[in-house]
Amino acid sequence: MKKFYIGFTIFLLIYGVLMYLYLFQSQQDLPQAYVGGPADPTSFMSVEQLHTATIFSRIKDFLFFIGVPWEWAIYLIILGLGFSTSFYMIANKLSKRSLLVQTSIYVFLLSLLIALLQFPIQYYSYKISREYGISIQPFEQWIWDKGKSFFVDLVLTVPMVWLLYTLIRKSPKKWWFWFWLISIPITILMFFVQPVIIDPIFNDFQTLQDQKLKEDIIAIAKKADIPANQVFQVNMSKKNNGNECLCNRNRV
């Protein structure tokens, strides 16, 4: 097992170096067929803007591609160093009878550790977005959103993990089938719950004031056979340099 962790660490280092060389050292030119056309950034961006956008894009890409194997590494760290077992023992010690309470404690501790280990990359990504003017969200608002996201995920994860363990205990051989079967309506339900309950936790939705734009959007939605009778907008200018709108038939 020790050799595996050493090998995986070496893999991460080599992978990181290769990704850095590919993104920052290799020449990535626009295909000749698009040079001078509307897809050519030089046709609508200055040299300075193009340079800034390129550097920002490469940094974000690097963080993304590094983040994926780092997430794998986090799970290996949790398993290899015995964190998962320790969390289970703590949960079992604090609540010996209630599986739901045990699950809540275990998932909370596990989620907290994962969040802490992922925080450096997430914070650096936020910092880069601030430095390049993509995000204008103050740190305290950003960390508040991260906190809300953590607890929303916790509320959604605990029941599913509790259900999984319950099914494993009740049906050791067919738990996977029953869990899959139950997860189908839950997944469908989330499509309706998210825009109505979860999204408003992070953003303040208001009815679109521009009636002409509202009518145009609803008309386009109807042409696409999307049932909609209301359009909402959310002011993202406090977070990013842009605005978004949401069309949702469930909100009147």
Automatic annotation (TrEMBL):
Keywords: Membrane, Transmembrane, Transmembrane helix. The chain crosses the membrane at residues 5-24, 72-91, 103-121, 150-168, 175-193. It holds the Pfam family Peptidase_M48_N. InterPro entries: Peptidase_M48_N. Residues 45-203 form the CAAX prenyl protease 1 N-terminal domain. This is CAAX prenyl protease 1 N-terminal domain-containing protein. It comes from Tepidibacillus decaturensis.
